[in-house]
User: Which sequence fits this backbone?
């Protein structure tokens, strides 16, 4: 599966030939997402433009499915209509496995974040049995022994008369061997608890996010200049 991210500036003509080339060459099935700045009623826009019609023909040519369901993907300026220029296109083979939706918080951007979920079981692509992962415990490493052994192992490295690639592979092999001999490790099974990262989120961050959401909702209800300014300033 391949993922192609696209941004097409509105001031530059859509390079349809290059887009066709990329879609044709990437492995299938594929996901094509991005800001195309193209308008078409099939995407959820209120009207079509030349860029939107051209892109729609490309979608049809490569048998892609449009996951957009009409929801706008932008926060419109006052007295202007919202548009759906952020598209999610997938191969028809996996379209029924995908769920696309628009987040309700713009996070201060002109664009609303879009999210794509793919309901694919790992067994569909990975037939190998699950293998327990191993984690090295560097806090319990025997560094003195590691240092002494490394001096012995690397002492003859300069005398190796070989190609740079073989010399590099030999060097990496020594490092891996040293790590396996002097750094203990433990297995991480499916039920192994992994510590969560240290939280940096505080109440001030939560208040800012809540205020941003409130001002955005208020602007959507009454899209005027005053509420637009409040939204951009995060005031309510």
Assistant:
């Amino acid at each position: 599966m391949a993922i192609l991210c696209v941004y097409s500036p509105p001031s530059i003509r859509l390079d349809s030939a290059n887009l066709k080339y990329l879609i044709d060459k990437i492995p299938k099935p594929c996901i094509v997402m991005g800001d195309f700045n193209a308008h078409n009623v099939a995407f959820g826009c209120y009207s079509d433009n030349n860029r939107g019609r051209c892109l729609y023909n490309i979608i049809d040519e490569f048998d892609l499915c449009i996951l957009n369901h009409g929801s706008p993907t932008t926060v419109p300026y006052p007295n202007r209509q919202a548009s759906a220029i952020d598209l999610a296109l997938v191969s028809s083979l996996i379209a029924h496995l995908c769920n696309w939706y628009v987040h309700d918080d713009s996070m201060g951007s002109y664009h609303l974040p879009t999210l794509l979920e793919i309901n694919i079981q790992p067994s569909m692509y990975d037939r190998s049995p699950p293998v327990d992962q191993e984690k090295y415990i560097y806090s319990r490493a025997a560094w003195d022994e590691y240092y002494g052994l490394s001096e012995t192992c690397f002492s003859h490295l300069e005398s190796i008369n070989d190609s740079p690639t073989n010399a590099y592979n030999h060097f990496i092999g020594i490092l891996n061997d040293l790590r396996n001999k002097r750094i203990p490790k433990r297995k991480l099974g499916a039920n192994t608890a992994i510590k969560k990262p240290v939280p940096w989120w505080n109440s001030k961050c939560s208040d800012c996010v809540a205020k941003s959401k409130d001002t955005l909702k208020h602007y959507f209800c009454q899209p005027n200049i005053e509420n637009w300014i409040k939204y951009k300033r995060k005031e309510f």
